[in-house]
Amino acid sequence: MTEITAPKSPVTAEQFADEIREQLKYSQGVTVEQATAADVYVAASKAVRNHLQDVWMDTQARTAKGETKTVAYFSAEFLMGKQLENALLNAGLTDQFDKAVEALGFEPKDIVDAEYEPGLGNGGLGRLAACYVDSLASLGVPAFGYGIQYRYGIFKQTFDENGKQVETPDYWLKNEEPWGHIDYNRDQKVSFGGEVVEENGKRVWKPAWSVRAIPVDYLVPGYKSGNVNTLRLWTARAYDEFDLLAFNRSEYMEAVKPQVAAENISKILYPEDSTKVGKELRLEQQYFFVSASLHDAIRFFYPGEDKPDLTTFADKICFQLNDTHPVIGIPELMRILIDEYDYDWDTAWSITTKAFNYTCHTLLPEALEVWPASLIGELLPRHLEIIEKISDQFKAELKGKGVDDATINDMAIYTGDAVRMAYLATYGGSYVNGVAALHSQLLKDMTLKNFSDAYPSKFTNVTNGVTPRRFIKLANPRLSDLITEGLGTDKWISDLDLLEGLEPLANDDEFVKKFAAVKQANKHAFVGFAKDHYGIDIDENTMFNTMCKRLHEYKRQSLKILAVISRYAGIKNGTINADDVLPRTVFFGAKAAPGYYLAKMTIQLINNVARVVNNDPDVKGKLAVHFLPNYNIEMAQNLIPATELDEQISQAGKEASGTGNMKFALNGALTVGTLDGANVEIRERVGAENFFLFGMNVDEVESLYATGYDPAKYYESDPRLKQAIDLVAGGTFSEGDRNAYAPLVADWLTKDWFMTLADFSSYANIQAQIEELYTHPLDWNRKALLNVARSGFFSSDRAIEDYLKDIWHTGPLA
């Protein structure tokens, strides 16, 4: 990548301090002496934003000229993390900031800590989107991220006295938020409901109600690229927010009813959808942001034109659908082209299919969104008509290809009762990509096999990546400094392949010892972080063993906690010699969807295992368990650099890719994992000898499904597993209540769809290998260093370059 110097030279520390003083005075209305850390955070953020503003406006102007095709990344979530440090890094102002706030009498850490993490995402899908918009800007590619400005995010996670997950609102916008600029002058109208009528031979949608979509713009600065792109998030408002007549009749709730109904659309990420009302809200959210975004893109590239030539639209911008959430954008663009701009069907279809591409993030059929046709017909009646016509066209096309009727029926986009969004995305776009080599192959061989057979050229792979700016440079400054020392340059921050230069240093014992010292310092720092944030005491002289990821059965947190219970039982009953035990601290971090009963019960079990283990003097100093609440980017940036053993133990064939596995490897953790998702590629690149592999592979899993899986057989055959489950069933972790975890135990013994029990013995057995290696610190850290050196492929910059070459067919601005 060619580096481009930003057009505005960085200021001195003294000048930056003056800018903060000015913002304190004119924006915050306080003197330096009166200012709190929160005041200085807001003032410094506004000062940094001012430095980015000129570059952003220049990037916008060059983007609008259409010199190279723009990328629009459609995503229901963008898990951005705190903004100040990242903006300082990319603006080249980190050192100036540190010195400036110190000159003002504050500690830089206190100012950074005053920022509240944005509640704009939840898991890997949203973090990937955030990494990708970072890389697009850093590579100089013009791009918009499009999504929703959630007022409360998904939820803030706490635990009650019984260890149960409690969901509370995440009030991330309760104080001043200096990064998002609300632009009321570029709002869009988004409509719902009503009916479709025939007028002068044309189908005309007569909506029942509309909301105002107001853009909130976040600047996305590239690292040393001279580009600042835009993350445009939409917030919903009513056009008539207040009924004065109703208010004057003392009908106060009725007076604000339109406002409440509209604002519900952008309140919560992933509202619980087990009810019809919840499903309606989810569909409203999805349509809301894609409709506003498509109209916004047209406005941006054809400003002031009533009847622009939209046959050039797909040459100016392409839309990447991040999973199925934005797929309603395909019929929406068709509706816009046909109903609003009078294009015929074939022309509109040609434009639409060139404009859209689809990333599939799952192999689980239940995760491929299917909407009831009745619901789409109720909320978006014109779109249902368009979807039905697309579906009919698709069937005719398949028939022309010689596909048999049964297969055509299996591939139906519109079944009469339901609309299959993944199928609509696959047919309606130019490309479909998986997010790891194994995942992409399984998409073609299993999940979307019929589509791959009919349209093989549509399918490709882009293995995920993570941004090294946030997840090494910012998250792990000690390791970053050591990498720069080892390589003799910091250019690796924008070219992660340069990490290969560390490989010879794995044979240098002194450098490996420096690497080990960095890990130990990170562990020490995390002990302080955990004490400050969670009030827990952690022994830094134990192995730090981490499993942080969304709580889902296929990710198999159950496997990890059963192994922990087995270890605890072994120490207690003497089958494991306490003197030979390698001391471990096991960390969990995860949120469970509010309606996901077994996932929430698993969280409760882990918390209560932790309560028992951590209060048992027989295992003190040998084993500790902590479920850290409200896993987010801040926690990740502190925990990942401190982790020594990372758990990637999902059932083979179920994880699409993972990006946590990449972050841990890049930060010098060794991985214990299955051949699933990107684990396959990580193991190939870091070396099989530097990865702890266990469990069945995809073929073995499928074979066991086919022949009939009996989990009880595995329970009976491994005494360690039987004892662990019996302790759960017997009430050891529920104060004697044998019914507390009965549904979980019953699921393990009778269903266990993701084969936790089948892989338990293999997982338990590999622990001896892990622990033996850990007793040889030089060998352990040599392997950990090789994980860092060989993980450069997993940069989001590389992933974006793959998209540019294979899918988007565009490049950076000149």
Automatic annotation (TrEMBL):
Which reactions does this protein catalyse?
[(1->4)-alpha-D-glucosyl](n) + phosphate = [(1->4)-alpha-D-glucosyl](n-1) + alpha-D-glucose 1-phosphate
Question: What CDD domains does its record include?
Answer: GT35_Glycogen_Phosphorylase (cd04300)
| GO cellular component terms attached to this protein's record | cytoplasm
Q: Name one GO molecular function term.
A: pyridoxal phosphate binding
Cofactor(s) listed? pyridoxal 5'-phosphate
What EC number(s) has UniProt assigned to this enzyme?
2.4.1.1
> N6-(pyridoxal phosphate)lysine-modified residues are where?
663
Which top EC class is given? transferase
Instruction: Give UniProt keywords alphabetically.
Output: Allosteric enzyme, Carbohydrate metabolism, Glycosyltransferase, Pyridoxal phosphate, Transferase
Q: Which PROSITE patterns match?
A: PHOSPHORYLASE
Q: Name one GO biological process term.
A: glycogen catabolic process
Q: Does the keyword Glycosyltransferase apply?
A: yes
| Function recorded in the entry | Allosteric enzyme that catalyzes the rate-limiting step in glycogen catabolism, the phosphorolytic cleavage of glycogen to produce glucose-1-phosphate, and plays a central role in maintaining cellular and organismal glucose homeostasis.
- Family note: Belongs to the glycogen phosphorylase family.
Q: Which PANTHER family match?
A: GLYCOGEN PHOSPHORYLASE, GLYCOGEN PHOSPHORYLASE, LIVER FORM
Name of this chain's protein: Alpha-1,4 glucan phosphorylase
Q: Which organism is it from?
A: Bifidobacterium stellenboschense
Lineage, highest ranks first? Bacteria, Bacillati, Actinomycetota, Actinomycetes, Bifidobacteriales
